[in-house]
Design the sequence.
């Protein structure tokens, strides 16, 4: 019954989506705790300490990995939400078209976030 | 399929036990967080731009509406993180029984409320 819609899922199968969702969750939890820890544990949290942190290549890479994890995680989560609520049962025959439009918009935002993040991290 | 089988999809008549409440809030906070990413990227961009940009981000949070937006964003993040940790623990087989699930759900709500209140104290 769900065969048609699963082609838009991130990992193309429930097993891979399940795994990607967990791996990205662990990355995001680690990144969040790191940032919170940095802000609270810095003796003097200022522009100097903050920009020095992001001058380190590992921090830029860590941030990029977290951003990519965000995009993957959000896609899998929002896909679940969208395929649960924007359905033919809930909205009638137009649901499939509406769902595709919403998915395309979400994907566009995901690409926008990724490019923006890379520009912040590496652009001048 | 028997088309006359009884169906109850009237959400207002369906009970919402703690686990269901935790689940729907996890979804709502997840959707909210996808928008919050734009706010975070904006803040990251400005804070790394220059010392003035960093000061501007800090100063922006002096106003009450900005404090409320930041608190709401942090609340979504805290809640989503705590509920997500419960998912990961359940994947490890912890709290999978009916009673364990109930207790875990209540714990998520309690821990999230406490952390969200602490975040509020930190912001003000």
Sequence:
């Amino acid at each position: 019954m769900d065969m048609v819609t699963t082609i838009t899922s991130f990992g193309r199968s429930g097993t891979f989506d399940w795994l990607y969702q967990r791996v990205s969750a662990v990355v995001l939890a680690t990144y969040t705790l790191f940032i919170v820890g940095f802000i609270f544990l810095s003796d003097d949290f200022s522009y100097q300490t903050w920009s020095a942190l992001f001058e380190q290549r590992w921090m830029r890479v860590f941030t990029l990995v977290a951003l990519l994890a965000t995009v993957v995680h959000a896609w899998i989560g929002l896909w679940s939400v969208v395929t649960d609520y924007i359905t033919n049962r809930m909205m009638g025959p137009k649901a499939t078209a509406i769902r595709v439009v919403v998915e395309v918009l979400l994907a566009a935002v995901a690409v926008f976030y990724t490019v923006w993040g890379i520009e912040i991290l590496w652009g001048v | 399929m028997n088309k006359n089988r009884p169906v109850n999809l009237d959400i207002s008549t369906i009970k919402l036990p703690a686990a269901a409440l935790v689940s729907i809030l996890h979804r709502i906070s997840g959707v909210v967080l996808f928008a919050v990413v734009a706010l975070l990227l904006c803040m990251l961009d400005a804070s790394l731009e220059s010392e003035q940009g960093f000061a501007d981000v800090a100063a922006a949070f002096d106003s009450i509406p900005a404090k409320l937006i930041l608190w709401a964003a942090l609340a979504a993040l805290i809640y989503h993180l705590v509920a997500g940790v419960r998912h990961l623990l359940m994947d490890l087989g912890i709290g999978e029984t009916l009673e364990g699930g109930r207790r875990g759900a209540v714990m998520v709500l309690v821990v999230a409320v406490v952390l969200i209140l602490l975040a509020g104290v930190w912001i003000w």
About this structure: Helices of chain A lie at 14-41, 47-55, 57-85, 88-91, 95-122. Chain A has a mean pLDDT of 92.
